[in-house]
Amino acid sequence: MTLSLILEQLLNGIQLGTMLFLMASGLTLVFGVMGLINLAHGSFYMTGAFVTAWVAGATGSFWLGLASGALAAAATGAIVEVLVVRRLYRRDHLDQVLATFALILIFSEGTRWLYGSSPLWLNVPESLTGSVTLPGGVSYSIYRLAIILMGVVVAVGLYLMISKTRLGMRIRAGENDREMIGALGVDISTLYTLIFALGAGLAGLAGATIGALQTVQVGMGEPVLILAFVVIVIGGIGSIKGALIGSLLVGVVDTLGRILLPDFFKLFMDASDAAGVGAALASMLIYLLMAIILAFKPHGLFAAND
Amino acid sequence: MTSLDSTQQSRAKSRPLPAFTREQWVSLILLAGLALAASVAHFAGEPYFVDLASRIAIIALAGVGLNLALGFGGLVSFGHAAFFGLGGYTVSVGAFHAFNMTPILGIDFLPAGSDQMVPLWITAMSVCGVVAWLIGRISLGTSGVYFIMITLAFAQMIYYFAVSWPAYGGEDGLPIYIRNQFYGLDTTNSLVFFGLSFALLLLALGFCQRIMAARFGAALTMARLNPVRLATAGVEPRPIKQVAFVISGMITGLAGALYADLNGFVGPSMLSWHQSGEIMVIVILGGVGRLCGPLAGAILIVLMETFLGGLTEHWQFFLGLIILMVVLFAPGGVMGLLAGRARHA
């Protein structure tokens, strides 16, 4: 266990955290403003990945694929909002969970129908292949660094949008008082569609970029979706700041846990047992973290409103 | 409790109930229909359809468990696969050790498993009861969406544990080579196994009906509708919810135990969040907080799976569409359609 390995894993953790932030910021915005639990958020992630892989495969341009993937996810989000989700805002969480669970079934099976059940592949763009040597002697993939950079750009962009623009002002107003902002003459339903599409677009962007690291297949959104839920629950539902901190926390804890725990158990167990126990515990670690945080702070670390 | 008693009395006075409500008729017809279908299939020599009926009864049982927490107690648990899977794993692990004649968990002073259903069921329910108690202890401090997510998190925890724990099959799951025994009965006979599952379903339904008619049920209903008022009446809401959650987990665990024996196999998928979602779909599709709602939901889902699955390999697409339509346009579920609105809507 060298320092450079830990540093590399730390960067991997941050990269995972960035992905989770792209997912979680949309989820938390949608919950904060519209009060909706959206289980189908992972489907937009999947849509982004599939469209990117398809367009990049057809045109040969990763960047064109990336743009169309994010846009397609946003457009899908807008359509879903208008057709289905809009009817769920006034329902209780139970109906929302069930309806969006049904959307998952529809999206997963629909994607399998469209693209077939064999996974698609997406290559890292040529300009971002290879790795760089970071200070400290760590050799690290440029593409993953670019993902981290993109996360920073998105986080800053979201911050600026929400705190400086008129749209952001309306979003904040929507979080505070849904009825009042409608009474003031803001077109609520367009605002809701916009927010939902924005969240879906961010999820699509996440899926599109991760598609070059993993296989693009049906169901790829679900593990990320569950992690994103852990993130927003830890961070406090409705809080972008909570989503950012929660994402990084979950990303780093999960990645480092998988590396460090087996070694930790080797200190007082024999190697094969330690690997098993370490791996088992590592995969449970973030859920333990969440349970502990919720046991002491039932509304997460940065609860925005309840 | 005097205030509760008097409200019940006045309600009974103002609205005398008929001997059998429409909901009870529908429930009776569903139950009788299921038993009849299984018997007819058996004597027509179609064990496949008998197993299908067993599946309906078992999934309905899991739903009955969840319904107690979700429907009657308003505790939207998105993690009941944890109990379903734990019940299954308990039976499977017990049978595994009985088959290999090794002590449970490799700990020497523990007994060498069992191939008898009754002790396995009791163990499964005890395990689930303890786990539900622990999960409830932590989760019930939260409410709303946080409760949904924390129950999901606990189920995921157990799921990942099962996936990465190699002793009992890990990702591959654990087969049950010989179906477990129930005293003198031939459990490998499909109809006998259906009878056992159906009897347990009836027992669970009767039990739920009893406790919901008792003071406990009144307190649980009030804990869902208005916990502050319940506390004012001198009953602490949280222990009531805790007990409901534990019983709920135990019933779902029993269903998992039966399901393992039905399939002769348990895998981590029984613990997955998809499974939680499915149990939830059954409850909601059937009608939340209706005693036989889960049965109606289970019948609908299993039949759709079977017949849509026969028509197209993309049946899940249409299943999703149907669920979506029910949520959007028929909020009372199947029971709501068949038997009218619930009395406590």
Distance between the termini of chain B: 23 Å
Mean pLDDT metric of chain A: 86
Summarize the helix and strand pattern of chain B as letters: HHHHHHEHHHHEHHHH
Q: Estimate percent helicity of chain B.
A: over 70%
What does this structure look like?
The complex is a heterodimer of chains A (306) and B (345). Chain A is mainly alpha-helical and 306 residues long. Chain A has a domain at 10-218. Chain A is 74% helix and 3% strand. In chain A, a hairpin with a 3-residue loop joins β1 and β2 (138-141). The longest helix of chain A has 32 residues, at 3-34. Chain B has a domain at 60-291. Chain B has 14 helices and two strands; from the N terminus they run ααααααβααααβαααα. The chains are: A mainly alpha (306), B mainly alpha (345). Chain A binds chain B through residues 31, 37, 84, 87, 91, 93-95, 97-99, 101-106, 108-110, 112-113, 222, 226, 229-230, 233, 237, 276, 279-280, 282-284, 287-288, 290-291, 294-295, 298-300, 306, and chain B through 70, 76, 78, 138-139, 141-146, 148-150, 152-154, 156-157, 160-161, 163-167, 273, 277, 280-281, 284, 288, 314-317, 319-321, 323-324, 327-328, 331.
Outline the secondary-structure elements.
The complex is a heterodimer of chains A (306) and B (345).
Chain A: H1 3-34, H2 41-59, H3 62-83, H4 93-115, E1 131-134, E2 138-141, H5 142-164, H6 166-176, H7 178-183, H8 188-210, H9 221-235, H10 240-266, H11 271-296
Antiparallel strand pairs in A: 1-2
Chain B: H1 2-14, H2 22-43, H3 47-72, H4 81-100, H5 117-139, H6 145-164, E1 174-175, H7 190-213, H8 215-225, H9 227-232, H10 237-263, E2 265-266, H11 273-286, H12 293-311, H13 315-329, H14 333-339
Antiparallel strand pairs in B: 1-2
